[in-house]
Structure formats: structure tokens, C-alpha cells
Amino acid sequence: CLTDWNLRFQQLLVYKEEIVDCQVPLGFSPNPQLGKWTYRQQRSNKLKKLTKERWEKLNSIRFDWGEQPS
Questions:
Q1: DSSP characters for 3-68?
Q2: Disulfide-capable partner of 26 in 35, 51, 53, 63 (CB 3.0 to 4.6 Å)?
């Protein structure tokens, strides 16, 4: 759902502002859903299922497309 995606994106912006990167751990205790969401974005990109609009939005904030830290 687009609303959920935008909500998580906004949460990622807050995380990045506080932590300085976009490497949200899967077990990020303040917001476990955010870690799962970032993993899904990486996976969707790897599988070529991420829309161009979402890819551009994530890329604009220097999203980390690598593996999720544990």
C-alpha cells in the first residue's frame, strides 16, 4: 500500500537524521517494522520488482542497497 510505503519512508528519513545512514538492522527494537521494510526494499530492487519512482526516492537519500546488517 502506498500510504504504508510513504510512512516507512518518512520513518527512514527520521532514522537517517538520527543515525546518519540507512542501514536499519532487522532487529531494530524501537521500530522492528522499519528494519523489515528496508530489507524488503533491498530485496525488491535485487529482484527488479521495485518501481522506478520508489528506487529514485530511496536513491535520493543514499539508501544502502547492500545486505541488511544483523
A1: HHHHHHHHHHHHHHHHHSS----TT-TT-HHHHHHHHHHHHHHHTT-S-HHHHHHHHTTT---SPP
A2: 35
